[in-house]
Amino acid sequence: MESKTLKVIELFAGVGGFRLGLEKSNYKIVWSNQWEPSTKIQHASKVYEARFGKENHSNEDINEVVQRNVEEIPDHDLLVGGFPCQDYSVATTLHNSKGLKGKKGVLWWAIHKILEEKKNKPKYLFLENVDRLLKSPAKQRGRDFAVMLQSLNDLGYAVEWRVINAAEYGMPQRRRRLFFIGYHKSSELFSKLKESRKIDWILKDGTIPSAFPVKNSSELFLSKFQLKGDLVEITDNFNKTGKKSPFENSGVMINGEVSTIKTEPSYDGNYTVLGDVLQNGEVTSEFFIDDKDKDKWEYLKGSKTIERISNEGHKYKYSEGGMIYPDALDNASRTIITGEGGKSPSRFKHVVVSERGLRRLTPIELERLNMFPDNHTKLEGISDRKRAFFMGNALVVGVIEKIGKELYKQINQLEYA
Length: 417
Description:
2 domains, globular, two-stranded antiparallel sheet, single chain, Rossmann fold, 13 helices, DNA Methylase, Chain A, domain 2, alpha/beta
């Protein structure tokens, strides 16, 4: 039977990392949204439109779109997005007939509203976030993820999740992110997960371990618990006394039951390292470190103890260890952060040694570390600093490509066989 093209909407699209990964398989983006709230010029959206066209692309606050009418968003099989890490707590409100209210402006509730109100709900979700979501906030570790899981459970979705460090599977950047996939109860994959041994799903049968294999863990270490109460109760009471989050780096949730276990990557393929992505001999002078700044760079990268004063007025000593400087070329790079661009010395920017001296990374090199095509973010009016910012916000395209390919395979085998 002929393979079916799956329709996708891409939220919080940035410069299109999800799209680049998914379009390697039989997915079609039918609608996308990118909105940067704090900036007048919508740089990321401009890059997205330049690469993929303006058709079916929305550059409007997603909260305003969903408040107006979720049916403006086309029907789709898969909803994807890397949404910001915020406070997901829920409160009771007298004015709201449903009695529940998430914090205004928290973008998780925009996703929630689409899933809740669309007549034809997407059967699948593929979402990305920082790995600290599993253990935030500090006073109730894991509460935010529990709110999210229970809200998806209420909407009829099962969830599979894993924290993946791209470098542990041969990719060029040590970037650790949480990926989770949702399966609606109307899908065959929901039924398959329901009938499965949860430990088998997490370790080998699920979508994520099929794409990113893990070593076998002892079943004795599998933790199971039921999410109790509505979203307000979870907000108020989840893990109030626990010092540690109950969520490990891998797990599933179906019908409110969580099964979770710590897994380790299993990979024996090739590795790409920082040295492999460098533009040798093609780098212009502005990326080289000025002799007058070298001492400042060395100081910032070195170990130090600094006396600081807390908000309450107490003096304390803040210590930080030294960093490998310049960055090692025979290993995957450190995580790119949004402040990577610009000439000013910084502890966190990458510095590499070349025949012509020490230098920062170029926008093309940063794109390669996230497995984007060369010059994907190059556009008139977009500075190198802004291009670096995009890559600090982006995801590793190779991770999306592998999970997307495996999800497509699973859906195609079960739903359209």
